[in-house]
């Protein structure tokens, strides 16, 4: 969580895209029965929520915001 707060807005957008891609890939792997580790998906979804929360906080305070 502390790393997310220190990260720049551009890096947050990039990280958010990476995490969303990881969740998407995980869903396709599960459909093909390639993976069994459900915890990885839960962790990625929680990271996405943390990133979005930080973005919303920054928008409300007007600090380091990407439009």
UniProtKB/TrEMBL annotation:
Keyword Ribosomal protein: yes
Swiss-Prot/TrEMBL keywords: Ribonucleoprotein, Ribosomal protein
Pfam families reported in the protein's UniProt record: Ribosomal_L29
Keyword Ribonucleoprotein: yes
GO cellular component, one term: ribonucleoprotein complex
SUPFAM superfamilies, per database record: Ribosomal protein L29 (L29p)
GO molecular function: structural constituent of ribosome
One BP annotation, GO: translation
Domain of life: Bacteria
Similarity field: Belongs to the universal ribosomal protein uL29 family.
Protein name: Large ribosomal subunit protein uL29
Organism of origin: Candidatus Nomurabacteria bacterium GW2011_GWB1_44_12
């Amino acid at each position: 969580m502390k790393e997310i707060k220190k990260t720049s807005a551009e890096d947050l957008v990039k990280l958010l895209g990476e995490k969303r891609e990881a969740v998407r890939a995980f869903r396709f792997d599960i459909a093909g029965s390639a993976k069994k580790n459900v915890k990885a998906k839960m962790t990625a979804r929680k990271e996405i929520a943390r990133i979005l929360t930080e973005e919303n906080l920054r928008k409300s305070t007007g600090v380091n915001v990407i439009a």
